[in-house]
């Protein structure tokens, strides 16, 4: 039997939960569709649907099969697309997702680096947050992404973890610019402009946890993934932002003392890396180290609280 | 306004002034400071080689000599010493405030001397180790501008004698009078226990590098200096959980000192010695206390960016 095709029928039935509707959608009569589902059940040795006169429902085995079937069908489709592209003589493509705040210089270096390594392959970049990249990778709409940790997603594999320690961007008339290095606790009472939680759920929570631990509870958090908007708020003295130095007059960058924030990222792909993913990963890691100030992740220092008699419990 | 330390900069005011000096000025004090990176050797100073009055900071070299004598078997730190109620040196903390006879080990007396600047404990220990022994130790470390020539009782007695009052209880009141303060011998570095900011950071660096005594003794001294309870001076400049501050304060009328070591999570260790005198004779000056922390942070900030 053509297992992939039968899995396709199965998926349509799971979406409709009605043999008649599913058959109509597939442009076939109901009896042959029912027969093919039965054949699939025989092949797999399990019942996939509970059928009654009124309704069709997935069995436990059916439920387990759904994500597996989706993946197999999507990958076969992608394989066919890729082969037909090649057959038609179209250039091969690697579809990559990158974070919104990567910056023009890094982006340009990434494209140039990939072009040097694989002049025969077109690099198609999409700006996406981590949450969107995870979904796109799992659904096969992206071949590779640059995800920001922490991220929890089954079915993804990761390349090397790179880390950078953001500093703080301040208005030049902020009194904190007098310090060569600023502690998180110094920022207390200020507003923070940060990427949206929807886009970067893991890193957003992680960053705010570190802030609270360090004595900085922002009075207000303004979320944006637009770099210009974020710099505008800093420039006006409305808020402070975390990040790399910005070459903007009126905005001053200071390192955070003790590097309390660690922003990690790594290339990621679906369990089996697609074609050219390794090339993209190699180039991306190189570019992020050279142009974006990232380094291989070392052993992260454990946060420590040094005891002081005057602030000890029950003191 | 946020919590923590502020650089103390008023826009437009003497922009060219040394930032450490600016911190002292804005708190109404004259300051002497030396800060050094214990491992890297970089340093920052302000009048760092001028003689300063130690006040209770002299308890640091005393503590060191106590441990050195224990290393040589001259005394046993666990030996218990009676401190009768009738024979207490003045001061607002520790044994001076306690009403009954006490018996403590030498090392627990040392704890009280460092944690709450207990003057009675210090005098018991100084009597035990001897002033000459402390000065011989200081000579050996090359700290020849640092001298311990009197105990706490002598310092305090000079205050009420110079103030012209009958006893200790009247000193606090009398010393808010600028004319009285002007004639106090205790505020003259040439007269009493003295040092320079630079010699104090050298002493601290030697303790933190295990060079001032054996490693176990240096560790015991570091432990006691981390147990000091005061949050208002050096520690106030570093209101950060991950930063460790150890120190010893010193206080006399118009005079506020602290020497100590600030340790960052990246391993950076900085010895700082800050000595101040205020123009105001008021006894409660939180801004002057906090200026010690702010100046220390400013100095350490200049030494490293901790990244």
TrEMBL record, chain A:
Highest taxon, organism lineage: Bacteria
GO molecular function ontology, one term from the record: DNA-binding transcription factor activity
Keyword DNA-binding tagged: yes
Spans traversing the lipid bilayer: none
Listed Pfam families: HTH_1 (PF00126), LysR_substrate (PF03466)
Cross-referenced SUPFAM superfamilies: Periplasmic binding protein-like II, Winged helix' DNA-binding domain
Domain HTH lysR-type: 1-59
Record's keyword terms, sorted: DNA-binding, Transcription, Transcription regulation
Cellular component annotations (GO), alphabetically ordered: protein-DNA complex
Protein family per UniProt: Belongs to the LysR transcriptional regulatory family.
Protein name in UniProt: LysR family transcriptional regulator
Species of provenance: Microbispora bryophytorum
TrEMBL record, chain B:
InterPro entries named in the record: Beta-lactam/transpept-like, Beta-lactam_cat, Beta-lactam_class-A
Domain Beta-lactamase class A catalytic: 33-276
Keywords assigned by UniProt, alphabetized: Hydrolase
Pfam families membership: Beta-lactamase2
GO biological process: beta-lactam antibiotic catabolic process; response to antibiotic
Transit peptide is among the record's keywords: no
GO MF annotations in UniProt: beta-lactamase activity
The protein's name: Serine hydrolase
């Amino acid at each position: 039997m053509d297992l992939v095709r039968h899995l396709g029928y199965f998926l349509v039935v799971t979406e409709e939960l009605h043999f008649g509707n599913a058959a109509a959608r597939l442009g076939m009569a109901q009896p042959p569709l029912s027969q093919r589902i039965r054949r699939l059940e025989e092949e797999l040795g399990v019942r996939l649907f509970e059928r009654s006169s009124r309704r069709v429902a997935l069995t436990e085995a059916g439920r387990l099969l759904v994500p597996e079937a989706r993946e197999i069908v999507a990958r076969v489709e992608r394989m066919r697309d890729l082969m037909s592209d090649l057959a038609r003589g179209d250039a091969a493509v690697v579809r990559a997702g990158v974070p919104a705040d990567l910056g023009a210089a890094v982006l340009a270096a990434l494209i140039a680096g990939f072009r040097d390594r694989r002049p025969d392959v077109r690099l198609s970049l999409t700006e996406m947050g981590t949450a969107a990249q995870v979904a796109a990778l799992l659904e096969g709409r992206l071949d590779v992404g640059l995800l920001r940790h922490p991220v929890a997603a089954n079915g993804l594999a990761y390349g090397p973890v790179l880390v950078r320690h953001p500093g703080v961007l301040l208005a030049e008339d902020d009194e904190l610019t007098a310090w060569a290095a600023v502690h998180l606790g110094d920022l207390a009472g200020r507003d923070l402009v940060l990427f949206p939680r929807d886009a970067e759920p893991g890193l957003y929570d992680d960053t705010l946890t570190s802030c609270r631990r360090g004595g900085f509870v922002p009075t207000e958090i303004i979320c944006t993934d637009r770099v210009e908007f974020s710099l505008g708020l800093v420039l006006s003295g409305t808020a402070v932002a975390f990040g790399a130095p910005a070459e903007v007059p009126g905005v001053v960058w200071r390192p955070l003392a003790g590097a309390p924030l660690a922003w990690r990222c790594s290339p990621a792909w679906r369990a089996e890396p697609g074609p050219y993913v390794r090339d993209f990963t190699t180039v991306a890691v190189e570019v992020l180290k050279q142009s974006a100030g990232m380094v291989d992740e070392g052993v992260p220092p454990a946060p420590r609280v040094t005891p002081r008699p005057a602030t000890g419990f029950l003191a | 306004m946020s919590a923590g330390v502020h650089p103390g900069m008023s826009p437009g005011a003497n922009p060219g002034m040394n930032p450490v000096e600016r911190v002292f000025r804005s708190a109404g004090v004259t300051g002497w400071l030396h800060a050094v990176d214990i491992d890297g050797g970089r340093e920052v100073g302000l009048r760092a080689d001028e003689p300063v009055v130690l006040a209770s900071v002299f308890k640091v070299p005393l503590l060191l000599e106590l441990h050195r004598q224990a290393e040589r078997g001259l005394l046993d730190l666990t030996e218990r010493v009676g401190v009768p109620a009738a024979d207490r040196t003045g001061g607002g903390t520790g044994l001076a405030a306690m009403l009954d006879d006490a018996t403590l080990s030498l090392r627990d007396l040392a704890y009280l001397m460092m944690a709450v600047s207990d003057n009675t404990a210090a005098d018991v220990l100084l009597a035990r180790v001897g002033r000459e022994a402390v000065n011989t130790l200081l000579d050996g470390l090359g700290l020849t501008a640092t001298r311990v020539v009197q105990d706490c009782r002598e310092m305090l007695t000079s205050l009420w004698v110079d103030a012209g009052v009958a006893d200790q209880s009247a000193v606090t009141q009398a010393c808010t009078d600028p004319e009285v303060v002007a004639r106090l011998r205790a505020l003259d570095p040439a007269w009493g226990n003295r040092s320079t900011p630079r010699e104090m950071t050298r002493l601290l660096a030697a303790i933190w590098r295990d060079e001032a005594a054996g490693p176990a003794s240096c560790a015991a001294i570091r432990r006691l200096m981390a147990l000091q309870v005061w949050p208002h001076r050096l520690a106030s400049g570093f209101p950060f959980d991950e930063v460790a501050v150890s120190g010893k304060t010193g206080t006399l009328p118009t005079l506020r000192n602290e020497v100590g070591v600030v340790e960052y999570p990246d391993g950076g260790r900085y010895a700082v010695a800050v000595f101040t005198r205020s123009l105001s004779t008021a006894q409660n000056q939180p801004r002057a206390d906090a200026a010690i922390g702010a100046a220390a942070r400013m100095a350490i900030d200049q030494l490293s960016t901790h990244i």
